């Protein structure tokens, strides 16, 4: 069993579930994200609270964990203070959340832990912070892999260039897990000659080719779903995300959903001038006015980012341009490029939907890491025949006030979005 700290919409939860773990408790401060998480994992517990304000006792008592031993605690503390595109201030107060991650791991006493963060933590003076983290664990009964690594999602079957730091640790009476070996190689990778035996990473078009063109559905101007959509012929990658074929060693619970339904696909209204600019931009290049990147169908996606929250300016991160239609990609298309299966749904707004994806770890990358822990535990997970219901769809339409009320928390726990 596992615990997810800083859970967001649930990318890491899903990856660990796919590897064979039951993620019995997840902690997330944002009520909107909690509601989305609950919709996709209604059979486990989501605690809508800050890690600063919770304890191991509360996590155990408010979930079905009780006094049982926990296999692994994982999570990615918000990391803007280390971001390569931020100022990377060493004493950024946002980085104090990492200390609370450590505190909860030591309180919960799992057999293993995984800490995920941005690549920027490994650069310059921030390496000192990694040393502090490792020392805190090693002084409290844990050991940590000293050869920490940056993993690129594109080497684990995800059609996106996304590099993240992973720290792996365990109690002193356990064996440290290894880092997962790459299973795919991105097109035109510098490592191609070294990894010629690996299969190619799915391309952008492998991910998108069977999805219905949203501009053919007028109703998607007002809502984010349509029944009985006209899906095309999928790639092998698309078949897996649609649930038409099984993913290798995927032990997640099957969800009850209609595969003919297109979800998370609210259209974006672009003016004629923008559409002309998008159309004239070559694939694989950046449109000079908007600075949006136009996806190349035979390449992989650039890193999908979340943008900034309300208290940091409420900026929407640039969304890629579709490779063939002069528009930005939809939330569902971003989800495909992030390795989320089609049954997984996001908040109905593009604002929250893209932030939920951009803030999350691609499930297939999380699955690769979690599978290494499964190997050390030396258990053989099984695929259960249980088909789980998804949650109530009202969870996906909550605004902040309704979501906060649903979880009985202050509606200003996340500062409201400032609109210009």
TrEMBL record:
Annotated catalysed reactions: a 2'-deoxycytidine in DNA + S-adenosyl-L-methionine = a 5-methyl-2'-deoxycytidine in DNA + S-adenosyl-L-homocysteine + H(+)
The keyword Transmembrane appears for this protein: no
The EC number(s) this enzyme carries: 2.1.1.37
GO molecular function: methyltransferase activity
Origin: domain of life: Bacteria
UniProt-annotated catalytic positions: 79
One of the GO BP terms on file: methylation
InterPro entries (UniProt xref): C5-Methyltransferase, C5_DNA_meth_AS, C5_MeTfrase, C5_meth_CS, SAM-dependent_MTases_sf
Signal peptide (from-to): none
Pfam families the UniProt entry points to: DNA_methylase (PF00145)
Alphabetical UniProt keywords: Methyltransferase, Restriction system, S-adenosyl-L-methionine, Transferase
Family statement drawn from the similarity comment of this UniProt entry: Belongs to the class I-like SAM-binding methyltransferase superfamily. C5-methyltransferase family.
Name used for this protein in its record: Cytosine-specific methyltransferase
Native source organism of the sequence: Plectonema radiosum NIES-515
């Amino acid at each position: 069993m596992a615990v997810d700290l800083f859970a967001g919409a649930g990318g890491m939860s899903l990856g660990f579930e796919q590897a064979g773990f039951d993620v019995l408790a997840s902690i997330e401060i944002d009520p909107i994200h909690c509601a989305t998480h609950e919709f996709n994992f209604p059979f486990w517990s989501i605690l809508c609270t800050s890690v600063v304000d919770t304890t191991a006792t509360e996590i155990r008592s408010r979930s079905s964990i009780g006094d049982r031993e926990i296999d692994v605690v994982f999570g990615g503390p918000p990391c803007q203070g280390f971001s390569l595109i931020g100022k990377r201030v060493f004493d950024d107060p946002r980085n104090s959340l990492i200390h609370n991650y450590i505190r909860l791991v030591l309180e919960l006493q799992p057999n293993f832990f995984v800490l995920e963060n941005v690549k920027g933590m490994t650069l310059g003076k921030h390496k000192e912070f990694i040393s502090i983290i490792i020392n805190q664990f090693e002084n409290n009964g844990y050991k940590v892999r000293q050869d920490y690594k940056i993993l690129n999602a594109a080497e684990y079957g995800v059609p996106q260039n996304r590099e993240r730091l992973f720290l792996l640790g365990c109690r002193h009476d356990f064996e440290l897990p290894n880092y997962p070996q790459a299973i795919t190689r991105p097109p035109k990778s510098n490592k191609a000659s070294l990894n010629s035996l690996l299969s190619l990473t799915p391309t952008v078009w492998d991910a998108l080719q069977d999805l219905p063109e949203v501009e053919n559905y007028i109703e998607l101007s007002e809502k984010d779903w349509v029944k009985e959509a006209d899906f095309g012929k999928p790639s092998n990658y698309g078949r897996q995300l649609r649930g038409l074929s099984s993913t290798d060693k995927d032990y997640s619970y099957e969800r009850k959903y209609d595969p003919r339904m297109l979800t998370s696909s609210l259209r974006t209204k672009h003016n004629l001038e923008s559409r002309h600019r998008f159309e004239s931009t070559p694939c694989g290049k950046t449109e000079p006015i908007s600075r949006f990147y136009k996806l190349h169908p035979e390449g992989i996606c650039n890193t999908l980012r979340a943008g900034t929250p309300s208290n940091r300016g409420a900026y929407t991160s640039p969304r890629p341009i579709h490779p063939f239609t002069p528009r930005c990609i939809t939330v569902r298309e971003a989800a495909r490029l992030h390795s989320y299966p089609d049954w997984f749904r996001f908040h109905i707004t593009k604002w929250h939907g893209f932030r939920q994806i951009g803030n999350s770890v691609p499930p297939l990358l999380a699955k690769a890491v979690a599978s290494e822990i499964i190997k050390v535990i030396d258990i053989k997970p099984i695929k259960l025949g249980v088909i789980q219901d998804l949650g109530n769809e009202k969870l996906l339409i909550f605004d902040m006030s309704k979501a906060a009320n649903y979880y009985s928390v202050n509606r200003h726990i996340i500062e409201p979005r400032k609109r210009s």
